[in-house]
Amino acid sequence: MSVTSRIRNFSIIAHIDHGKSTLADRLIERTGTVSSREMRAQLLDSMDLERERGITIKAQAVRISYVAADGEAYLLNLIDTPGHVDFSYEVSRSLAACEGAVLLVDAAQGVEAQTLANAFLAVEGGLEIVPVINKVDLPAADPERVAAELAAVLGIDAGEIIRVSAKTGDGVDELLQAIVDRLPAPVGDPDAPPRALVFDSYYDTYRGVVCYVRVDEGRVSTGDRLRFMATGEEADADEVGVLTPKAVPVAALGPGEVGYLISGVKEIDRIRVGDTVTRSDRRATTPLAGYREPKPMVFSGLFPTEGDDFERLREALEKLRLNDSSLVFEPETSRALGFGFRCGFLGLLHMEIVRERLEREYDLDLVTTAPSVAFRVGLPDGTEREVRSPQDLPSDRTEVLEPFVRVMVIAPSEYTGTVMELLQEHRGELGTMQYLTPERVELVYRVPLAEIVFGFFDQLKSRTRGYASLDYEPDGYRISDLVRVDVLLNGQPVDAFSAIVHSDKAYQYGRRLVERLRGVIPRQLFDVPIQAAIGSRIIARETVKAKRKDVLAKCYGGDVTRKRKLLERQKEGKRRMKMVGSVEVPQEAFISVLQVDAD
Amino acid sequence: MPTDPRPDDPALNDEAAGWVGAYVHVPFCRRVCPYCDFTVVSGKDHLMARYVDALVAEIGRCEPFERPLDAIAVGGGTPSRLGPDGLGRVVGALRDRCGLAGDAEVSLEANPEDWSPGDAEALVGAGFTRVSLGVQSFDPAVLADLGRVHTPDQADAAVAAARAVGFRTVSLDLIYGSPADTPESWRGSVRRALASGIEHLSAYALTVERGTALARAVAAGAPAPDEDRQADAYEEAVAAASAAGLIRYETSNFAAPGHACRYNLLTWAQGEYLAFGCAAHGHRAGVRTRAIARLDRYLEAVEAGRSAVRGTERLAPWGRELERLMLGLRRAAGVAAGRAGRALVESEDGARLREAGVLVARGDRLHVAHPLLGDEVARAALALAPREC
């Protein structure tokens, strides 16, 4: 059993691509936690998708042994955090398990909005910050400028900043020593009734729910009868252990320790991340402070291309939710698409990841409908209702309230005008503007959430050559002038194409949508009119002209087998089409709706 | 005297299922056309004598049908490059080994630039009754675009020579929808072809086939054939042919009464045919065969006394039934519905196609009323769930 004074629990806060995973790899490698044979790049990003996209989605933890300058062996628990704006709630849950954070900033890119947002989260949470500038080996590195930025925005002494190259390993020893020296050791009474924070969980097919916990006080031992304080769920601790990063069972976890616990609970719903674990026979009285609850921001319908796959989709969603409590879903029926689910996501990236995992890991062909934010709608009787789907927008509404967010953008100051223009196009209202340094500006706006979640990030990146960064947080609701734009295919409304948009943008949105649909809907046996409408008023129209030629010119004795095989291949292509009424619609048509921007 | 049957006569089309034939592949070409995806070679003319020997050897070893051949087709490539002597030997060998019905059709493909009146006469003497001339267009710009080496005047002369020496049927091939082809040039080509007095016309849409020079050009940004322009060209050809008394009897084929291509009728009716030569496809006893494609390997195999067959396919009963429907629907005569046809009519796709007027059921026969949309029907048939046959 370790002594708490030699434990340090920390996270690394960093913007995407600032090198967090590489630094984590280096720390693990430097301390011999994983033999070099087992070492693979970006060790913590275990999910295939994470590796491919180079982002971190799920928080994970690893225990690092490090012999410090004083000759003592320390246990450093590195709790990984995601770097994308969609997943900020995961950051807060990780931080809740730490005493300190390494704030990692790219020596060329400088401070980014999210880094700052997460750094403030850490400071608010009472965490000690170790500022680090990474990639100092790069030719474009400007550590002096970045140090000045960090000093300015965080009010720290530039001399505290450690300069490293996670790639070459330079400065990593100094960083490890700083983690030992500067971060406080956890404190906790080992003899108190146990309290351990569940900061993550996942579902293992063989072992059931595995919880990642950080013990605050007392001890959690194998064989204990445990109680989850919020849910009241009780279970036996079948196994407790630490992650090196391999799971290594231990007899008990004491104060300050981070590890896993397997309790034989098979249903993930019965364990809430953020809950406090105590002992059934020696209960703590007050739970630990939790963390920011995940709140779905974007809703979209997911429908199987093959109607028969509905049950498989349900099972797949349930399995995904085992490891992703931020995913919510409920059954939805579409006239055009049949039975599916309305799902709530943290953002568009989260939506894309879920969709990709469903298609890749569960072999489902899916149609995704236009995403929507959740509106609040006032009804004549004075009550209010939440609307997550354009279909549910009541016609007798008295008003529609739209969710707003407080958006923070950090950009090089030469892009100030560009960024302000972009935010105004998206119905933004300027809050504050602050120069972090003469070269970098921070802009805070109040913007409708719907304007931010769909493609805004890409526009911001492209207009600022990738130099601007973004973070946002919910900022209440406001009455807006919103209408529903419907699409009719061959005269029939297709609910999956409907969207709620601001009335100023509705005409342009409708135009672009029908133009795009005309481009992706293949020619059919008859003319297919595509119309956009607000209520009964048609605002845009295009026509996919009837197909005129679809036949092989030649088919003789020598061609019979070959031609049949060609037709069979074409037939497989058609199978991926969705019949909407009498019109064959390819899946890209539904995806194209996601890409329509009224600007 | 009985009148000649119309080429779209259902009885004639169905009767062809009982015919037997032989296909002979000749891969030699003066040059390879950029759009061609058949097995062809250029610059290998020194192998032609060996090739004729190999064909004769293969024919000598084949198992004849129980009835004499109703049709022989010599295709390619450019069969006319073998010359009347070589072709005469091949036809003679077939006649000796398999027998020829009294009214048998013996057909070859030829290019206008390889066609002299003397050769034409010798071929009729050797027993050929039908020639299909690869004219493709009467517009020099289109011919250049298609990589063809003959001139419009050579094409006219070739037709005239073929008619003069007494071929029973003279056919022309035309290609529409190449980038240089305009509505005017196409109309001109169709009219000049029909004015030459031919009894048979094949009009093909230029198609970008995988692996061809054309496919590479299109991939590199050259214009691809345009669907609407090809549809216009097709309609033009149908109207002009009909006005000239040539009746459409298959997607791309038109003939005067009594001049339907018998070999083609038998292949569309799932009749049986032997195959000789490299890359030649045969069909017998429910098995489709394919010969070695490479010329040198084909020669080596046949010269060593080995079979040239390199691939076979035996379709399950339902697959054969679908194939019957798929092939039969290309014909203007349509096809007896049978199990597959009835399943198609009852299917959702079938209802959609009937509603659109593409698929038409008349009595127990099914027809494709819009031949340009025929593959819609074929794919719908292939998508049917298999049934007991």
Q: Your description of this structure?
A:
The complex is a heterodimer of chains A (599) and B (389). By secondary structure, chain A is α+β, with helices and mostly antiparallel strands. Chain A folds into five domains: 4-182, 3-Layer(aba) Sandwich (Rossmann fold), CATH 3.40.50.300; 195-279, Beta Barrel (Elongation Factor Tu (Ef-tu), domain 3), CATH 2.40.30.10; 298-371, Alpha-Beta Plaits (2-Layer Sandwich), CATH 3.30.70.870; 376-480, Alpha-Beta Plaits (2-Layer Sandwich), CATH 3.30.70.240; 483-595, Alpha-Beta Plaits (2-Layer Sandwich), CATH 3.30.70. In chain A, 26% of the residues lie in helices and 34% in strands. An eight-stranded antiparallel sheet of chain A has the order 11-10-16-7-8-15-12-13, with helices on one face. A six-stranded mixed sheet of chain A has the order 2-3-1-4-5-6, with helices on both faces. In chain A, strands 21, 22, 23, 24, 25 and 26 form a six-stranded antiparallel sheet that branches. In chain A, helix 12 packs antiparallel against helix 14. Chain A is globular and about 80 Å long. Chain A starts with 6 loop residues before the first strand and ends with a helix. Residues 35-43 and 53-59 of chain A have low confidence and may be disordered. By secondary structure, chain B is of the alpha/beta class. Chain B has two domains: 10-268, Alpha-Beta Barrel (TIM Barrel); 317-382, no CATH class. Helix content of chain B is 40%, strand content 23%. In chain B, the strands form four sheets. In chain B, strands 9-10-8-7-6-5-4-1-11 form a nine-stranded mixed sheet, sandwiched between helices. The longest helix of chain B is centred in the middle third of the chain and has 17 residues, at 227-243. At the A-B interface, helix 13 of A face helix 9, helix 10, helix 12 and helix 15 of B.
Q: Which secondary structure elements does this structure contain, and how are they paired or packed?
A:
The complex is a heterodimer of chains A (599) and B (389).
Chain A: E1 7-14, H1 20-30, H2 48-53, E2 61-67, E3 73-79, H3 88-95, E4 100-106, H4 113-124, E5 128-134, H5 143-154, E6 162-163, H6 172-182, E7 195-204, E8 208-217, E9 220-221, E10 225-228, E11 234-236, E12 239-243, E13 247-250, E14 252-253, E15 258-262, E16 276-279, E17 298-304, H7 310-323, E18 328-334, E19 338-345, H8 348-361, E20 366-368, E21 375-378, E22 384-387, E23 399-412, H9 416-425, E24 429-437, E25 440-448, H10 449-453, H11 456-463, E26 469-480, E27 482-489, E28 492-493, E29 499-502, H12 503-520, E30 528-534, E31 537-544, H13 560-575, E32 577-580, E33 583-586, H14 587-595
Parallel strand pairs in A: 1-3, 1-4, 4-5, 5-6
Antiparallel strand pairs in A: 2-3, 7-8, 7-16, 8-15, 9-14, 10-11, 10-16, 12-13, 12-15, 17-19, 17-20, 18-19, 21-22, 21-23, 23-25, 23-26, 24-25, 27-28, 27-29, 27-30, 30-31, 32-33
Chain B: H1 10-15, E1 20-26, E2 28-29, E3 41-42, H2 48-61, E4 69-76, H3 83-98, E5 100-110, H4 117-125, E6 130-136, H5 140-145, H6 152-165, E7 169-176, H7 183-195, E8 200-205, H8 213-219, H9 227-243, E9 247-250, E10 253-255, H10 262-268, E11 272-276, E12 281-284, E13 287-291, H11 295-303, E14 309-314, H12 317-328, E15 335-336, H13 338-346, H14 348-355, E16 359-362, E17 365-368, H15 374-382
Parallel strand pairs in B: 1-4, 1-11, 2-3, 4-5, 5-6, 6-7, 7-8
Antiparallel strand pairs in B: 8-10, 9-10, 12-13, 13-14, 15-17, 16-17
Helix pairs in contact in B: 2-3, 3-4, 4-6, 7-9, 12-13, 13-14
